[in-house]
Structures are given as structure tokens and as C-alpha cells.
Amino acid sequence: MVLNTCEINNNQLLINKYQTIAMKDNVIHKVMLTVNHKDYTLQILPWVSLLDALRDRLNLTGTKKGCDHGQCGACTVLCDGKRILSCLTLAVMKNGSQITTIEGVAGPLELHPLQKAFIDHDAFQCGYCTPGQICSAIGMLQENKAATREEVQELMSGNLCRCGANSGIIDAIMEVKEQQS
Ligand code: FES
Ligand code: FES
Fold it and tell me: PANTHER family given for it (predicted)?
């Protein structure tokens, strides 16, 4: 999910363009989403971001709004198994998609291995970035592109931690990566 500055700017331009078109349109759209294995039908204005739909309409406030501009990764969720920035995604663009937020990653009786590893490695302080870090790490491990710690760091560099818990975050991810290999 690492986005370079050019890609972020392109995404922002795209969302601005859609929002401008949509605001002229000013029509409420029906959007069907499956979030954490539960089906929802929303009547939603076309310029509402997926992040705002999750937090304000579905009360799934685990996904955090940091910058709202694609810069921090706090809003990362999984869409059809791939990590995306929900602040740069219009909800209408994801009609019919399967979304997983931090509220949906644990099993019925136990935490997701990454949640457990984050606790074991003291990989958070304030916890604001943590839901995005964990969703991003799940997506990154599924991508299976990182072989080394340095590559994991690079592929997680779109998720910022202002508390400086980065070392513990990478330790936790590496532990789960090694368990999976
Ligand atoms: S809130 Fe989406 S990247 Fe910062
Ligand atoms: S734990 Fe505070 S921003 Fe990461």
C-alpha cells in the first residue's frame, strides 16, 4: 500500500474530481457493503468517503482519521483482501465489496496473531495508528512481497507512528511473518 507522493497526489486529484462531479449531482446513492461479514445497505451522498461511512454511518470507529489526505495510513482497511486508504476512497466506489476493519480481524475466541504480537512486543503507545498498522500488516503479509525486515519496513512505510513505536511494530510483524513461513 505504500503510496509515493505522486500517487497520493493523483489519488487526491481523482477524489477531488469525483467529489466535484458528485456535488453537482447531489443524488443519494444506494451502496451495499459487506463489512466484517455483515451486510449493510447505505443511502449515501456520492462524495462520502469510505472512512466516514464506516465511522459515522456504521459506528465502526476503530478505523481512525489521521490526516484525511492519504499521508498517514491511520485509515487503512482491507477491501476484498487488499489494503486501501479509506480516506481516499469514496464509499460509492466500493459498492458490493467486502470490507474488513480492525473490529473484524479477530477470530470468535481469540485475537488475530498480529493483535497478539502487537501486545507482546509493546508495539503501541497511544494506539491511534494501531488499527491501521494491523490492517496494513495483514494486507502486506498477504501480498507476500517482503522477504527481509528491511522490505517489511519499506512496505509498511505508508503507516506512520507518531509515538515512535516503529521498532516494536516491525518486531511484531516479523514474528507473525516467521510463524506463517
Ligand atoms: S487518514 Fe487516511 S491516510 Fe491519513
Ligand atoms: S502508537 Fe501512537 S501514533 Fe502509533
Answer: OXIDOREDUCTASE WITH IRON-SULFUR SUBUNIT, OXIDOREDUCTASE, IRON-SULPHUR BINDING SUBUNIT-RELATED-RELATED
The percent of residues above 90 in pLDDT, for the chain, comes to 85
Q: Among 76, 122, 128, which is best to mutate for testing ligand 2, by the most ligand atoms less than 8 A from CB?
A: 128
List all residues whose CB is within 6 A of at least one atom of ligand 2. 124-130, 161-163, 165
Secondary structure of the chain: what % helix, strand, coil (to 5)? 45, 15, 40
Burial class (CB in 10 A: 0-12, 13-18, 19+), 98: middle
Say if pTM beats, i.e. exceeds, 0.85: yes
Question: Domain 113-180 sits in which CATH superfamily?
Answer: [2Fe-2S]-binding domain (1.10.150.120)
* Predicted confidence (pLDDT) per residue in 11-62, tens digit: 666 666 666 655 566 789 999 999 999 999 999 999 999 999 999 999 999 9
Instruction: Write the DSSP symbol of residue 45.
Output: -
Tell me: domain 5-104, CATH 3.40.50.150, correct? no
* Ligand 2, atom nearest to 133 Cα: 4
